[in-house]
């Protein structure tokens, strides 16, 4: 499940920097943004989304190192790790109680544009009509790219068939990043469907360790599908899943809301809810902020010559949020 979470996030970063239509081609020179994305996921403690960082951050979610994660735990871990990732600058929203709150997302994603130092300054551009009068977004034209994750329980021991059509509709949305889930004892990253079968990528393959070469390039072949994606019946899906969506701009989120209202909320038994205002019985929404302690300690080493003084497995401490 850790690897599946990495896959979904990596797809979001590809959409963020290279566009949804970008495709990888073997042995072709790739954009520098692509190489930088790969470096976020290398299996080293000093990489933002490494398996080390994800496992350690899971301790704060009540999961010991080596304990199995569920889709919701991975979503919470990604939300915390993203606070330390200034380059990608993602807003990660994980829905609560099967409910997505538009007001909270707008509050989290609307940021002051570069150069706006005071609240009294006039924004350089007018807001889209869709955001007029919607709380914080009405005074803030800059949108922070959104990774929206919706953890769901679609049944007790197996998926309830009433949710199947709505679940499939989510893959059709242009903002879709697929879904985290699987079947008992196996986690998969679902990327689409064909009829009543889900198409998935399987992370259960041992790969050779990959690191950055002297040139700064990452040997990326094992980061991509070396075999065709597999399929499984949707009825075999474990009911615990997490849907992922990426909205680079505010108009993408507004379009997603329209599609959800049209395709998801029409069902009698809704897969999840989409509401405009923050529920009054919930605690106040506070956008997640980067903690004051933000370092793993690695950057205090001036050069690699000093690394011999440290046992890399024991002396580098990865701090939880």
TrEMBL record:
Family annotation (Pfam families): ATG4_LIR, Peptidase_C54
Chain intervals for the UniProt region annotation (Disordered): 119-138
Assigned EC number: 3.4.22.-
Alphabetical list of SUPFAM superfamilies matching this protein: Cysteine proteinases (SSF54001)
GO molecular function: cysteine-type endopeptidase activity; protein-phosphatidylethanolamide deconjugating activity
Domain called Peptidase C54 catalytic: residue spans: 1-258
Entry's transmembrane regions: none
Homology family: Belongs to the peptidase C54 family.
Protein name: Cysteine protease
Origin organism lineage: Eukaryota, Metazoa, Chordata, Craniata, Vertebrata
Gene name tied to this protein: Atg4a
């Amino acid at each position: 499940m850790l690897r599946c979470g990495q896959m979904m996030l990596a797809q979001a970063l590809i959409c963020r920097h290279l566009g949804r239509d970008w495709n990888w081609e073997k042995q072709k020179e790739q954009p520098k943004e692509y190489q930088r994305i790969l470096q976020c996921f290398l299996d080293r403690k000093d990489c933002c989304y490494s398996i080390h960082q994800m496992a350690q951050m899971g301790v704060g979610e009540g999961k010991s190192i080596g304990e199995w994660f569920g889709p919701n735990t991975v979503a919470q871990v990604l939300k915390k790790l993203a606070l330390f990732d200034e380059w990608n600058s993602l807003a990660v929203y994980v829905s609560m109680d099967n409910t997505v709150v538009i007001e909270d997302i707008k509050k989290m994603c609307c940021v002051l544009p570069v150069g706006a130092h005071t609240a009294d300054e006039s924004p350089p551009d007018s807001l889209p009509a869709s955001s007029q009068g919607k709380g914080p977004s009405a005074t803030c034209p800059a949108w922070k790219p959104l990774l929206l994750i919706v953890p769901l329980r679609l049944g007790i021991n197996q998926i309830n068939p009433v949710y199947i059509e709505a679940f499939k509709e989510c893959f059709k949305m242009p903002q879709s990043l697929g879904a985290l889930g699987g079947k008992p004892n196996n986690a998969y990253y679902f990327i689409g469907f064909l009829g009543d079968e889900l198409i998935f990528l399987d992370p259960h393959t041992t790969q050779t360790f990959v690191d950055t070469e002297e040139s700064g390039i990452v040997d990326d072949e094992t980061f991509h599908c070396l075999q065709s994606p597999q399929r499984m019946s949707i009825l075999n899906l474990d009911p615990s899943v997490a849907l992922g969506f990426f909205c680079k701009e505010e108009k993408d989120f507004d379009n997603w809301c329209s599609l959800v209202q049209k395709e998801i909320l029409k069902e009698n038994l809704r897969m999840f809810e989409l509401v405009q205002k923050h529920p009054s019985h919930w605690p106040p929404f506070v956008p997640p902020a980067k903690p004051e302690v933000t370092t793993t300690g690695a950057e205090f080493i001036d050069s690699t010559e000093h690394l011999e003084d440290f046992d890399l497995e024991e002396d580098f401490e990865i701090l939880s949020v």
